[in-house]
Fold Basal-body rod modification protein FlgD.
Amino acid sequence: MQVNSVSNNSTESSITARETTSTLDKEAFLMLLIEQLKNQDPMNPQDSTEFISQMSQFSILEQLTNLNDTMSELVKTQKVVEATGLLGQQVNVATDDGTVSGEVEKVTFSENGILVYVDGIGYDPENVTEISGSESPVQNEQLTQLNNTV
């Protein structure tokens, strides 16, 4: 006796209602796994080792997604640290009209990104081509102490 899988119209409509993407995310993978389990042949169930393999693949996918999210947050934090390190520094910024030189007055953070301000105008920190800030007295004292201990 042969049992054929039966498709469910509500499942098909929910799958087609999803936004089409070029990559499979963990939600799509889980939906595929659930559909596979729902439509398997009851007289010939899926091999348990294959099922465990698919579950481990899902776990790996989830961990990679979490790692990617963590790395994205780390990159954002690094950009913030770098931008705030420019405060008070003399910089050259490449623009469409040439190069702007001046001291970084402030740094702003918004949904659109990070901006460093030179002479009241905001620039993308990635356009900074040179940093030539003067050392503060505290930095000079720390450098002197470091040189004396070496």
User: Anything to note?
Assistant: Confidence is low (pLDDT under 50) at residues 5-16.
